[in-house]
Amino acid sequence: MTDTAPITMRSWLFAPGDSEKKMTKAVGGAADVVILDLEDAVTIDNKPAARAAVAQFLRGNQDSRARLFVRVNPLDGPYTIEDLAAVMPARPGGIMLPKVSGRKDVEVLDRYLEALEVANGIEQGSTPVIVLVTETARSMFHCGDFAGAPRLVAMTWGAEDLADSIGAQSNTDADGRFGFTYELARSLCLLGAASAGVPAIETIQADFRDLETLKTRAEQVRRAGYRGMLAIHPAQVEVINAAFTPSAEEIEKAREIVALFAANPGAGTIGYEGGMLDRPHLSRAHQLLAQVED
């Protein structure tokens, strides 16, 4: 793991690497992290131009460098090295690696990044990585393998490519909700991230106009343990930021719980608001406060 990731990771907004206009709009908005995309948002023919555009954009926005990640192409294709060679001299804030099959992919990326950091006078190990898991059938079986993986600062998951990987016609049921396999993918990502000690980041909502559904879903996955969400349109960012920001009431309650246990250091359980608190409640209170306190 590395300590150089952005402190706040609620919203991760994709911007196509071949569109300076969209990249500029994204970095000027409220997204905690902007992901300059060289993978799905860019056609094969446009990839060389997109690499150059992303590198130029990074050089022109060094004040925002920490929140500018680049999604490179997956390691099982021919473009990853070219992507990294183009963008690393411009010092991106981090790298998103898609279609990760398991820990070995992160270790391979670490070796690439280490060589490029040395070549470009960048502090070794200072480029953080977020991985996109569950995009292939194989990766579903390796979500728990990432504890201690080099540079890892977050894990997220994907449903669209997973559907392609298993030959499904859709990843949703008739009511529009994710089917069982994709809910399983969400759970495995969450468990894998917890095992690795990094935040879990929810996958995209493709319908960027439906902000009410986005709000409901973001709040639901936050309650389940997710700490942020991917976005594909600037309109989604404010909704995501609000959903993943603890409320004043939640913060006050967490502080009360911490104070109660501090006042009763030998107690295993404590009465509170007509119920009982035990040590897991204290742990959850500390985790919530860690999201808002330095």
TrEMBL record:
Gene3D superfamilies: Phosphoenolpyruvate-binding domains (3.20.20.60)
Keywords: Lyase, Magnesium, Metal-binding
Protein's UniProt keywords contain Magnesium: yes
Cofactor(s) essential for the protein: Mg(2+)
Pfam families associated with the record: HpcH_HpaI
UniProt similarity note: Belongs to the HpcH/HpaI aldolase family.
Signal sequence interval, chain numbering: none
Keyword Transcription: no
Designated name of the protein: CoA ester lyase
Residue stretches making up the HpcH/HpaI aldolase/citrate lyase domain: 10-234
Organism taxonomic ancestry: Bacteria, Pseudomonadati, Pseudomonadota, Alphaproteobacteria, Sphingomonadales
GO molecular function, one term: lyase activity
